[in-house]
Design a protein that fits this description.
A hairpin with a 5-residue loop joins strand 6 and strand 7. The radius of gyration is 15 Å and the shape is globular. The protein is built from three helices and seven strands, in the order H-E-E-E-E-E-E-E-H-H. The protein has a five-stranded antiparallel β-sheet with strand order 1-2-3-6-7. Bound molecules: nickel (II) ion. The site of nickel (II) ion (NI) has 5 residues, from helix 2.
């Protein structure tokens, strides 16, 4: 197992669109294990492969309080979503220390594969729904701050730059 370095916004590599996973082998399962370890150590509730500079369609999530319910989504797709939207305060391991409100569908149905390539559907709501959508955005090369106004985004970039200098 290994901790993987996490890319930080505005690193341009975070804007890479990930490619589908086609091979379900030991290397993939190792990547899943390393991403899970990295997520738990951060600590965070979700991590997309994009954030560790691996541009494949793979995310790991654990929104449980006990941190023992790892969910792995490979090649995830949203096949249904509620019309109803909710506002939730989001953070991101790639945008440390920044929390902003984002509006998204309240529930989603996700179709994905597990680490063995088995397909499954999952209906998600609450924090899990938010997290799945947030992580799937990473696979499209999108970071949550891009859903905010330009002014807010510029403030966040300035704050992160200042923090890095210290
Ligand atoms: Ni994120």
């Amino acid at each position: 197992m290994a901790l993987l370095p996490i890319l930080e916004y505005p690193d341009p590599r975070l804007h890479t669109v990930a490619a589908p996973v086609t091979v379900f082998d030991d290397a993939l399962r190792q990547l899943v294990a390393d991403m899970a370890e990295t997520m738990y150590a951060a600590p965070g509730v979700g991590l997309a492969a994009t954030q560790v500079d691996v541009h494949q369609r793979l995310i790991v999530i654990d929104t449980s309080e006990t941190k023992d319910q790892l969910r792995v989504f490979i090649n995830p797709q949203i096949v249904a979503a509620s019309d109803e939207l909710v506002v939730c305060e989001e953070g991101c391991l790639s945008v440390p220390g920044i929390f902003e409100e984002v509006r998204r569908p309240r529930w989603v149905r996700v179709r994905a594969q597990d680490a063995d390539g088995q397909s499954f559907d999952l209906d998600a709501e609450g924090l899990l729904a938010v997290c799945v959508q947030h992580e799937m955005d990473h696979l499209e090369g999108k970071v949550f701050v891009e859903k905010l106004s330009l002014l807010k985004r510029e403030r966040i970039k300035a704050k992160l730059r200042k923090r890095k200098k210290r």
